[in-house]
Specification:
Elements lengths: L20 H14 L5 H12 L4 H13 L4 H26 L1 H4 L5
Length: about 110
């Protein structure tokens, strides 16, 4: 009689799990605060792809749609990425996280 070890479930890859709205808000806040003066799409793509939340192709598709939609590209991109990854709550959190940059005074 041989004993077999119980099968252990494979470890889940944290990057493969969909992000929570709070994680999206934090990511967009960091991108917004570091992206003053431009480069927001590049910072956003890098943040999403390195976390494994989106592929380059999915980001390119979402960014293209954000540019075609009327309104500020940064807000559109945040809303579309948030909605794609975490539904309506993700969209609200992503847009909320992208606002701190817009709240800073531009002139004294």
């Amino acid at each position: 009689m041989t004993s077999t070890a119980p099968a252990t479930p494979p470890e889940t890859d944290r990057a493969a799990l969909p992000p929570r709205p709070l994680a999206l808000a934090r990511m967009f806040m960091g991108v917004a605060l570091s992206g003053i003066g431009g480069g927001l799409p590049a910072h956003t793509r890098r943040a999403l792809v390195t976390r494994g939340w989106m592929t380059d192709e999915a980001f390119a598709e979402t960014f293209t749609l954000a540019q075609l939609t009327p309104g500020p590209n940064a807000v559109n991109l945040a809303a579309m990425v948030g909605a794609r990854l975490a539904g309506p709550g993700g969209a609200l959190a992503s847009v909320g996280g992208s606002w701190p940059r817009d709240c800073w005074p531009c002139s004294p």
